[in-house]
Amino acid sequence: MSNLIPQLPALQIVIPLFAAPLCLLADRTGLAWIIALAASSATTVTAVALAYLTYHNGVISYQMGGWAPPWGIEYVVDTANAFILLLVSSIATIVLIYSPASVAKEIRPGRGHLYYCMYVLCLTGLLGIAITGDAFNVFVFLEISSLSSYALIAMGRQRKALTAAFQYLVMGTIGATFFLIGVGLLYMMTGTLNMADLQTRIPGIQDSRPVLAAFAFITVGLALKAALFPMHLWLPNAYAFAPSGVSAFMAATATKVSLYVLLRFTFTVFGAKYAFGNLPLHWMLLVPAVLAMFAGSFSAIFQRDIKRMLAYSSVAQIGYITLAISLASSAGVTAALIHIFNHGLMKAALFCAMGCIFYRISSTRIDAMTGLGRQMPWTMTAIVAGGLSLLGVPLTAGFISKWYLVQAAMQSDLWWLVILIALSSMLALVYVWRLVEALYFKEPAPGTEAVTEAPLSMLLPTLLLAGANIYFGVDTRVPVAIAENAAELLLRGQIW
Description:
The protein is mainly alpha-helical. The chain has one domain. 77% of the residues lie in helices and 2% in strands. It contains 19 helices and two strands. It has a two-stranded antiparallel ribbon. Helix 3 (79-106) runs antiparallel to helix 4. The radius of gyration is 21 Å and the shape is globular. It starts with 7 loop residues before the first helix and ends in a 5-residue tail after the last helix.
């Protein structure tokens, strides 16, 4: 067992990477699902082990092909990226358990194995982004996750899914290109791509124009991939028209991984002193973050399609995370990491619940789901739990996120931010209440009188995610402890 531990970072990537072609060769939806689920479950077990080991024992490093860094590619795990690995792999596994009935409903016959192949490839890319210690390797995995995401979105039954996928492709390509240009400039100035090596070489040349340009390109590229306002235009359509399982998985993980990379480059590769001292990154992040909190919530209020409403809600929630990052304090980074985790839970639960509704009524429009609170009580319980967490009601995970965010703002003496956070939360109350009112206080829409709960294979994972929103709102020890430890490492600029 002790010999296996150093190999865990490689296994985190190798297992889903090899599973993807097996899903394709399976040529049968059921067999492809089994392969994908087995691979995802293995990555979850590996991520749990890595999170435990890094929290108690420190950093784990793996040198690809035996080539020592900076010449070779290094996979490195500390508490910060172990947190992200755990979120991505666990959400991927739960959504895969949820997927068979949803895939049968929403994916054209004969394409199920392609769906699972792309899903596992996307998982590989997201895990690789988080675990690699090589800047160019981040780009490689970013493209793997992005290309598979485009294919997954395009599998939606509506023709608008193709338009949404193309829009995401264009915007995602621009973001990835910006990131690659930034990495190229850093390589030109330092002669290395290893992140730890970059950290030691950048301070001596940090005032040079290529490094300044590199910082700008990387920051903007990652902000676009993370859908930070006003670079969010690809996100609403992508989430709204993708198959339900894809919406749940992407909403919970994709933008969160991009935000993690932004954290890693800002606080460790470039350093907080450089980013927030020499450069005005504080205001460059804070202003769009505040605008996102209000613009996202305002847009969500006027949506008739609930998946689209949840997508705009994600824009607002990304604003909260970015706001916490902009504070550049231990409390702020802790709040950002906690909300990355908690927002993943709440959005996965809500999109899975929408998938359950779509399975029964073939629509996610609010006027088509009136009165369903009485016909689908368990699904609606999940929606209420996710909605309360989204609002930040006590005893939910969302409350813990906003509590730490408010504390971070007060510690920075930015009391006006506390007021803005409270006001934006009131806006969230408006669109969540619209949904609750339609579900519980209006008469059933014509033709929905005989609607029943979705199959247990969809309902149980949805309830598990909803329950996690309550559990982590009561017992906060694990996510808070890991987030605080990770924030300390990032603020110290410690990189392996």
